[in-house]
Every structure is written in C-alpha cells, then in structure tokens.
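R.M. (postdoc): so does anyone remember the format we settled on? I'll just put the structure tokens first.
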C-alpha cells in the first residue's frame, strides 16, 4: 500500500498557522489589483445611467435595429388606417373641388350613375352632384324641344293644368319634367324636376332651382304645345265649348194638283 506524505504546517501555540504561512495564503486568495471583466458594448448607456446600473436586456434592446435581424418589436406609435364609410367613398366620386371637367367628361360621369346603376351606394347623391356641376359650369345650355304635353296625376287642380316633357340642349341624357298651372306657368314647390332621358317612367326625379327653371324651361313652347294638342283657349278656361247641334228643317212637300180634261160634246 502506497502512502502519501502530507506536507507539514507549522502552527503557533494558539493553533494558527505560522506567520509566513498566513501571508502566503492571503496573497493567493486576494489579488492585489482586481482585473475587470471585458464587456462588449454595442451602444452607450442612456445619459446619466451608469453602465453597470443598466439591466443587460436594456443594452440588448437598444442595440437591435428593428427590421434588421434580432428582435423585431411592433411600433405602437403607428395608427391603424381607418376604413372609409360609404358616404366618404361616395363623396370621392362627386366632382372634386379644384378640378375642372369638360362637358363631355361631366356628362360621362353623370350617365355612369343613372337609374340603371341602382346598386351603387348614394348613387342619386352622386348623379345629382354631377348635374349640379354641369348646370353651374356650362353657360351654353339652353331649352330644347318639347317632347310631349299630357295630363298627369298631379294636374287635377284645374281642367287646364298639364305637364310637359322637354329636352335640354347640351345634356341629352336628361329631360325636364314640369307641372304647369292653368296659365301655363310652372307650379311652385317641386313643380319642375329633371329625369333620365331613358327612364321617364321611372319614379326618380331631381328638383331644379327657380333660377334653372327660368333659364332652361320654355313655358311658352309648353303652353303652345298643350293648346294645340287639346284646343284649349290661349287665355285659359274650361276648354273650347262643344257647339250645340241644330235640327235641320225638313223639306216642304210639294202640292200635287189633279186636272180633269173636258171632253167635247157631240
């Protein structure tokens, strides 16, 4: 059996190691000048915060560039894009302020929102806005030919009241419809409106202002058309009276005279 020899240690009377042994042990356990550990810094600590006082994750978060590897964090400062309402989308399809349109362009826009496009939200608002733009922008518009004069369900106040359908030179897509009083003048209120040229029977109309009525409705032509059609007197009234038929006088029966001849005597 092999025996290992343990080095001996000199102790004093109190059982402590000798002075030379204590000095050697102290020199081995406590370095005379501590050496700091190497720290790899990719970014300086915030101002006023000592490097050793900052949490290591703080340096890591500051060192990582969003979107270029490392940790990608959502930017909470960005706001979500608000979805536009149907009204906002419709407003974008109306004539835009500061934009100039030709008559052809405006007519094309107007027609693209006619009664056949019934599924478009706020379609009537858009069509009305384009018609208003045309009325206000183009001074060359004028009253067109009278299409027809007739009796409608709104013309029951007087026997001489009537309605008229009239075209507008410059906007063939629409026609004017007006309810006229007994004197051939437009009725107040919603008496004059425009309708689609190919949808006069459709229950859809757009009211016209009094200024547009004065400019684009030819009341004189409408009255003449109605008077000619039904033979109404030009001054209004109850119409042309029917003449009373006269009973013809029967011919006189002629009187027949019989003549008896006289025979000679013998």
């Amino acid at each position: 059996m092999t025996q290992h020899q343990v080095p001996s240690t000199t102790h004093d009377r109190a059982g402590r190691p000798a002075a030379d042994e204590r000095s050697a042990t102290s020199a081995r356990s406590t370095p005379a000048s501590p050496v700091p550990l190497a720290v790899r810094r990719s970014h300086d600590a915030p101002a006023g915060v000592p490097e050793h006082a900052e949490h290591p994750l703080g340096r890591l978060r500051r060192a990582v560039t969003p979107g270029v590897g490392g940790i990608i964090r959502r930017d909470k400062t960005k706001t979500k894009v608000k979805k536009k309402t149907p009204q906002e989308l419709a407003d974008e399809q109306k004539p835009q302020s500061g934009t100039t349109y030709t008559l052809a362009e405006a007519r094309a826009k107007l027609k693209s929102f006619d009664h056949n496009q019934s599924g478009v939200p706020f379609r009537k608002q858009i069509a009305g806005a384009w018609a208003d733009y045309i009325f206000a922008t183009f001074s060359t518009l004028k009253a067109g030919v009278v299409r027809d004069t007739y009796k409608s369900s709104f013309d029951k106040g007087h026997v001489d009241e009537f309605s008229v359908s009239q075209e507008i030179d410059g906007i063939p897509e629409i026609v004017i419809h007006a309810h006229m009083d007994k004197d051939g003048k437009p009725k107040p209120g919603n008496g004059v409106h425009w309708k689609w040229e190919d949808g006069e029977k459709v229950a859809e109309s757009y009211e016209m202002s009094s200024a547009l009525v004065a400019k684009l409705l030819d009341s004189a032509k409408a009255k003449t058309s109605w008077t000619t059609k039904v033979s109404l007197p030009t001054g209004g009234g109850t119409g042309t009276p029917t003449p009373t038929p006269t009973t013809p006088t029967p011919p006189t029966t002629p009187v027949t005279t019989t003549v008896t001849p006289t025979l000679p005597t013998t």
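R.M.: ...and that's the designed sequence above, right after the tokens. Also worth knowing: The radius of gyration is 54 Å. The beta strands are 142-150, 162-169, 174-180, 192-196, 206-207.
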